[in-house]
Amino acid sequence: MRTLSRWLLAAAFIALFSAAGCDCEETFTALKSEVEVVARDGDKTIDPSAQPVDFGDVPVQSAKKIDIAIRSKGTFTLKVESIKLTGESSPEFALEGVTGTIRVEPSREFVFKAVFAPKDKGKESASIEILTDNETAKRIIVPLEGNGVEAIVTSRDIDFGEVPVGTNATESSTINNDGNIPLVIEKAAFTENPTDDGIGAFDLIKGAEPGTSIPPGGKFDITVLFSPNARKAYTGKLEIRARDSARPPITVNLRGKGVAPVIQAQPQLLDFGTGVSSGERVFTITNVGDPGQDLVIEEDGDPGTPAPIRFAENTAKEFTLTLPAGLTSAASALKLKAGDPSSKAEVAVKYTPSQATSALGRVIVMSNDPLAPRDGVEIQLRAAAPAPSIQVFPANASFDSDGKTTEDKTTFSICNVGTADLGVLDIQIKQAGSEFTFNNIPAKGTIVKPDPGAALDCSDAKNAVTFEVVYAPKTNGTHTAAFVVVSNDPQKTCDDSNKPRFQQDCVRTLTGVSKGK
Predict the structure, then answer these.
(1) In whole angstroms, what separates CA 116 from the centre of its chain?
(2) CA distances from residue 247 to 60, 120, 156, 217, 252 in whole angstroms, order as listed
(3) Residue 492 above 80 pLDDT?
(4) pLDDT by residue (tens digit) across 421-468?
(5) DSSP-assigned letter for residue 502
C-alpha cells in the first residue's frame, strides 16, 4: 500500500507539472528514492558497482576494517531490510554495526563496517547482499576480496646429545619462511635456560639479529652453544619474535645432557689399626661415570710435576706407596672405562713404623673427573705402632690431719692402656720439706703389662701396680707437693680431666692441711 501511495502521489505531481508544460519523465526520475553504496578505505573511496572492495594484503591472525555507506539520495526514507554476507569465503569476513531493519532518511547515509580476518594465507572473496524497498535497487551486491598473507615459519629443534661436562658444543637450526611475506626479526631470547652457579647452559652465538629480514621462500640459520657444568639432562627454549605482533613467536626447543667420568676411590680410609708392627692396605680406583666417558688417572699440570697418585704433604714417613704399572711419573696416564668391573686400578700402601708412635697421612689421586676436587681425591691413612700408654689414678689427692703425728694416706694406681710394655723408670716427689712420703713404691724399671681399654681409674686393669702416698705433717698449715712418674710412654700422656693429655711427664698434685690439736 505504501508503494502504491508513492506512485499515486508521483502521478499527481506529473499531472500538475504536465499542465505547466514540463518534461514529466525527467521529473519522475528526480523524484525516485535513489540508492548509492560506497566503500571508504581511509582517504580512498571505492565504488562497489565498478570494482570489488579490496582489502589488500592482510596478515593472518589479524583483521582489517573498511566502512560501507548506504546513501539515500531521493526524497523518500529508504528502508534497508537486510544486510548479510554470502559466498564460500564468508567465514573470513564479518560485518559490524548491522542490526535489524534500518531506515535512511533522505540525503543521509547509514555506515557499517566490513571486516576481513584471514585464517590462512591466500586470496579470499565474498559478497555483501543488501535488500531495500527501492524498486530499482531492491538487491544490491557489494563484492569483497582480500589476500591473507603470512610468514609461515618452520624450524628444527636442537638436540646436542651427550656433551662432556666442562666442555661445550654448538649446533644450528634452520628457520624457513614458507609464507608469502617477509619475516622481520624483532628479537630472540631464551624463555627457558637452566643455570649452574648462575651461568646459563645455552647461549645464542649466531643468527636472529634484530632487524634481520627473511624473504618468502628464504631461510636463515641460528647457532646455539651448549655448556653443561653438571651430570644431568638439560632442556631449554629459544623464542624468536617477529615484528608482526599478530603472529606467535618461533620456538626452538633445546636439549642436551652433560656426561663425565666419575672417580671413586674405596675405601676412603686405610686404617692399619693400633699396635701394628707393619702392614699393607689396598684401595681401588674405579670409574662410576657415564658410559663412553673414560676416567684418566693423570696429573693436570706441566711435565715434571708429581705423579698423579702420590702422598700429600705432612704424610708420615712410615708409609710407602706402590703405584699401578705405568703411573710412575706425571707424564704417564691410566684409562678406566665406566661400568666395566675389570677396569680398575689397585693401589697398595705399606706401613712400616720406625718408632713407637702414631702415624697419619693422605694419598692424593688426580684425574680428569671435572667434578672432583681440584686438588685431587684423598685417601686418609691412619696407623699406630705398638706403644705403652700410662694411666695414673687418682688425678690429684687431698689430705687432712688434726695433729702433728696423725697421718693420712691415699692409694695411687699405675696401669698401661697401650699395646706395649710400660716401663716405670722413676717416681719422685717434688716438695720443700718431708710431709709426703711413699709406701710400697715400684722399683725403677718395673714393667706394667698392657691392659688395653682399661677404665680411667684403672679399676679393671689386671696388671696395674699400686703404691701409697703418706701425709705426715710436722707443722700446722697447708702443704703442697707433686710427684712425677717417668715412664717409656712415647706420648708421655697423663689422662685426667684437669690436665692436658700431652705433658712432659705424668704429674700428680698433692695437697695436705694440718690443723693441730
Answers:
(1) 48
(2) 8, 12, 18, 18, 15
(3) no
(4) 899 988 888 765 678 889 999 999 999 999 988 888 898 999 999 999
(5) B
Query: Helices 24-31 & 2-19, crossing angle to 10 degrees?
Result: 140
CA distances to 86, 150, 164, 209, 230 from 233, in Å: 56, 36, 12, 28, 9
Cell of 249: 613467536
Is the Cβ–Cβ distance between 327 and 308 less than 8 Å?
yes
Residue 5 corresponds to which cell in the numbers above?
501511495
Grid cell, residue 154, equals 618452520
Beta bridge partners of residue 449, listed in sequence order = none
Inter-residue contact 251 to 237 (CB < 8 Å): yes
Q: Which residue has the cell 624468536?
A: 240
- Write the DSSP string, 81-138: EEEEEESTTGGGEEEES--S-EEE-TT-EEEEEEEE--SSSEEEEEEEEEEES-TT-S
CA-only gyration radius of the chain, Å: 53
- Tell me how crowded residue 78 is: count the other CB atoms within 10 A of its CB: 24
| Residue 355 CB coordination number (10 Å) | 10
Q: What is the largest CA-CA distance in the chain?
A: 176
C-alpha cell, 386: 705398638
Gap between the Cα atoms of 188 and 183, Å rounded: 13
Are the C-beta atoms of residues 141 and 186 closer than 8 Å to each other? no
